[in-house]
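I need you to check the entry underneath: sequence plus fold tokens. Let me know what the token row says about the fold.

>
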Amino acid sequence: MKLLAGLLSPYSRKVRIVLAEKKIECEMEQVDVQPAENPVNAHNPLGKIPTLILDDGTALYDSRVIVEFLDSVSPISRLIPDATRDRVAVRRWEALADGVLDAGLLVRYESIRDKKEQSPAWVGKQLARMHRGMAQLAAELSEKTWCHGDRYSLADIAVGCCLGWLNVRKPGGVDWVAQYPVVARHYEKLMERPAFADTVPPTPK
């Protein structure tokens, strides 16, 4: 298998962490998806990362699809529970963390547009979504050891990747980690795991 990914992509990091936790060998190719014509287009019509190319040439895209596939192909360190209610709860955590990231990415993309084209109202809407999402994450984490149940799962990976990206990019100029210390403490604990420590996003230029 080959993973088309980017070191700064939080969704790519999610897949890389799952690969590490599952002890699945996978080649990684760093790709730049900023140009309209890029290497991902031949495998993913959306031109987005992460994209996972299977041994038979089939391409999987969207990190949520990829991590579900990876969790199913190896019994090591199951990250998504089998029981319906527990599985849905873990995927709900993932959806919330990814939603905060989606809004954060929109804020970042808006900030690099020409000043005359930027919309403060649009940025404000996305920042409000982020604050609601982060407040929900903090409220549900509270003093728990893990996001869901009594063990580490995909929920923790998704939340950790969200916090890691926010800590590096600080969209909207907000220090999200300082503003939501409950979630920040969870990230610090996750960083003790090799899979997290080995995939820390580089400081952007």
